[in-house]
Sequence to fold (1386 residues):
Amino acid sequence: MTAVDQTPATHQVTAKIDKTYLEDKLLGRWKDLRLIARGFARDPRIIRDPSLGMDEHRERVLEQLKILVSEAQVLRAFPERLGGSDDSGGGIAGFEELLAADPSLQIKAGVQWGLFCAAIHHLSTPEQQDRLLGAAMRLEVPGAFAMTEIGHGSDVASIATTATFNEDSGDFTLHTPFRAAWKDYLGNAALHGQAAVVFAQLITKGVNHGVHAFYVPIREQNEDGSTGALLQGVSSEDDGLKGGLNGIDNGRLAFDNVRVPRENLLARYGEVSADGTYSSPIESPGRRFFTMLGSLVQGRVSLDGAAGVASKIALTTAITYGNQRRQFNGASDTEETVLMDYQTHQRRLLPLLAEVYAGHFAHDRLLDLFHAVFSEEGMDTPESREDLETLAATLKPVSTWRALHALQTAREACGGAGFMTENRLVQLRQDMDIYVTFEGDNTVLLQLVGKRLLTDYAKQFKGITGMNMARFVIDRAADTVLYRTPLNRAVQSIADTGRRARSANELRDEETQRELLTDRVETMVEKVAAALRPAAKMSQADGAALFNEHQSELIEAAKAHADLVQWEAFTKALRDIEDPGTHSVLVALRDLYALSRIEANLAWYLINGRLSTQRAETVTSYINRLLTRLRPHAQDLIEAFGLDDELVRATIATGVEQKRQDEAREYYRKQRASGDAPISEKTLAKAKRATKR
Amino acid sequence: MTAVDQTPATHQVTAKIDKTYLEDKLLGRWKDLRLIARGFARDPRIIRDPSLGMDEHRERVLEQLKILVSEAQVLRAFPERLGGSDDSGGGIAGFEELLAADPSLQIKAGVQWGLFCAAIHHLSTPEQQDRLLGAAMRLEVPGAFAMTEIGHGSDVASIATTATFNEDSGDFTLHTPFRAAWKDYLGNAALHGQAAVVFAQLITKGVNHGVHAFYVPIREQNEDGSTGALLQGVSSEDDGLKGGLNGIDNGRLAFDNVRVPRENLLARYGEVSADGTYSSPIESPGRRFFTMLGSLVQGRVSLDGAAGVASKIALTTAITYGNQRRQFNGASDTEETVLMDYQTHQRRLLPLLAEVYAGHFAHDRLLDLFHAVFSEEGMDTPESREDLETLAATLKPVSTWRALHALQTAREACGGAGFMTENRLVQLRQDMDIYVTFEGDNTVLLQLVGKRLLTDYAKQFKGITGMNMARFVIDRAADTVLYRTPLNRAVQSIADTGRRARSANELRDEETQRELLTDRVETMVEKVAAALRPAAKMSQADGAALFNEHQSELIEAAKAHADLVQWEAFTKALRDIEDPGTHSVLVALRDLYALSRIEANLAWYLINGRLSTQRAETVTSYINRLLTRLRPHAQDLIEAFGLDDELVRATIATGVEQKRQDEAREYYRKQRASGDAPISEKTLAKAKRATKR
Fold:
């Protein structure tokens, strides 16, 4: 990117961002690992070659994975005794940055280390880890994560593949009973996988103990280590071309009465003895299932971060271009207007920039919590896990949808140039598309969050104070008062509208913003809870119907919760910004985030009496003022992301547009100076009319 | 598509759509031509092969164009004396349907016949038509439409290419003065084009007469008719891979002092005599420019229709799949719930279905108007052209954005399956992406509409009644009272809120819906007009700044206008539906359209006192009731589009999912009946607890 060459005089610049300082803050806790990963993401061996067709792209990505493993970039999260660093947060931080190289590379790495290896790591006994994990970590065994079935996506509990224990032979029979039970969309399944972690209903002695994971070889290993033919009883199909991520060999797997040794049931949360007796350290089958799945939360955590990187690339491209490109000359006869000076352009890009910052800081909190649970002494409790899962389920949907929105908005803001592959926005959007439905469909995840909000709401009545999710953040905060989150307060809030409407008289006041955002979550949850109360006394079908009638509201409540969590994270981050200029600009950006969220839900605030119509009308005009105030800082705000030309890889964001504009303006300037410029017919006609008078 | 196999008993089915009847109504005025075009869109020679790389795809599309011309599908709009049928509307109707075959094919055909040939057709003298049009129509000369420059997209008036008349040699010198003046994104420019219609500033005798079109050979024609080397002075670059439409060879062109004969200035609206004297039948350079550009409005008209086809394919796929796919078993222990029965699924798809119907009927009106202007005696007046351009500029942005939204929503509603190329949604979305910025950037078009609304508003004060745009529709309507459109009424509307708030007590009432939608446009335009009034007395720069401050509002007003136009078209169409069951369902769908638009802008209605908070709260619950009422008709509503499996070409919409679901349910049914089903640990634990008590 090249800097803007001028700032219009009409903009008041009252503060200045210290870019180096802010970039350092944004790199955050795992700065060094992020910088190393960015080095890889610039490496010509690692970056995407957009000209490759599917087959070549798949082979290239496999080779890239080998480079990653040989340079030890992907093993940090694993146990030290097996060559890792027991550094869960650092592992994810580095992984996220790989998106800038090629999302196919990132997700193929995610399949191998974040799913296949992580499942062995988290669901195995130490003996099994020692036996199975090393070769998988070293990519000697490329593996698939065989959970999703054609007939069951987000509803993992209902998968139909069975693993039935045979008491006579002492092993399991793994079986796909019908077409809908084929495993589908699995990376490494079409071509490269030699083994798979297969999820199946564990049946022994006539009892189904629910979904468990099995380590299952699926293809032969050739003498040179490469992948050979499918093993007996295993079938595979290629998913073929996809909307994006075509560097990954996604495919389907089915098992026709395949025998699996008893020792290959990953047994940390449930094992079967030689005589077929099932035992588990977790008695409740429901809690056991969620614990197993929960140990795989890192997929959602890392997608949240990766989506943030994609959004940053999008805005870096569009804002850099928007600061150079000129179009239409409304304000002057000779000077065309820079795109970023148009209100519509600011409206499209700057609230999104505020969202991306909010999402960044929220992701930092998520990563802290993730690291604590999996790598800090004494932090792995059922409660902290539940908090982590809820926070991941809150943030992953909003950040992945935002990435698509940011990429599309950026592409449109760059016009036809945005559609060219050389400017990367379209290709990145194609790859990111699947992020909104994989690792948990976004809508299903938000419903889980909504249910959690309802549960916490119900707990209030049983004397349990506060909301679990907030606990971790409170623990780490110096000033716990700042961390009141929804449902901390008594239930009278609906009755309390008078005070709130009055307190909303200063929208730029932090406490007012918190009130408005918090109140919305609380009130929405209370309303849904009240509406659902009769369900307890209903038949299953009627209860489900009642729940269905309030499904949209519950999802809206979860989205409102996501707004609040991100606002709190942004606000917390502001307390660590000591540079006054940077602080001042970021406060305005945080205000823009808050006001944009309030504007998006203005009808709710009006209907529920939280804002008067007079006050509501000022929301939009206040946003417009913030846009004017932030516009001169837009370039600094994106440059602080630290994504240089080699990471962004969009030709139009490298300064070529500025060069073209300068050349054109110089041409016209010289023409005017020479007196050779043709006179326009319009001007001539005007002059003639003037002469006649 | 296969029909739904059961309709849940909970849905009241009070009316039934006559699908054949409705399909016939939707095919409309050019039914026969649409059916012929759909035949082509099913032809294996014409449909897209998704496995092809860019180079093969480009060659295949060129061959497909030759098939189209040999079977005379693309020449209807042209003069009879040259082999056409003088049938503008029919030409567009057939063209739109080609989208189902492959958008690359459609747009490459659009480049050849809708832009290159159409420019010759509409901007030439009869002599020039006779000389140049035939070979172009027959594709003997593939051509590019060289208007857009790298440095100027939607601002065509500012392009920098010059065509300077040489009085001594009697020809023009066509020249690209700097890099930003290269023509870019032109179909046929990279490979296949042998000529181009080039837009350039016409300069003669030191005067710039503004943008004019020139017919310019750019490549040699080989003996076999194929395209040869670039001609002297012409440079070309390949745009390479794009986000979609990779079957088209988009590229760039530049001209280094290329000589163009005087006869190749397309001279209908402006010519230069042998001595260099410029003359034009249109005196005002501004009006001349807009007349020339306006004659090319058919691009926008056809994109509006093509976008509608894409949206229909999207919804046909998602709703068919949503009626077969089951997920989660909230309501029953053994039966999973069909996706379309979930409120969130209905919320995602059914309001969009209502929008697509509204867009369909609005497009029918647009096509009527287009046909009248270009093919009906006495209808080609400056006013009707202006109406047509405004209506096209109103509808093209909303329908193209809607197509992207529909394709993305459908893709997400189909989960991972939606991401597979074999289900087509992703590929179609990639191709449609550029529709939102080409043939006029959507935001720029809406701004034009906004300015038109302001102009018409201003005219009211000068005694000109009514809004021009409405005139054509009124002329064709039996009941003109139904066609009151914005700005027909007196200015007191803002003061008139009391009556309006009261009249809103029945949201399902047609007149109330009209009031609410009309009032919004009027009031918004009035507000912007009032805010801009001081600009008249300001300097150019200050006036531009004031306008910029209200740019977003103006665009919002244009969107509100689009809502109203589509609602009026839907409501008008209802009067032609005689079958009572079909009528009843479509009325509910129209109501859903109206209520969805009102819900989307609820804050506006509240702030402006048009709805009370009590009434506003009922909007959402009324929408939810409409969803329940319409849900049983969703499959019929999409099947009436008449898009069969061969046109939709999405594997998941062919009934494979129903087959998989049936097989799985039959498996479990048999297992339960046999008594062999393993008992679940959960059930067992429950039973144990019961025994203990």
In short: Residues 574 and 586 of chain A are 7 Å apart (CA to CA). Chain A is about 55% helix and 10% strand. The first strand of chain A starts at residue 143 and ends at 146.
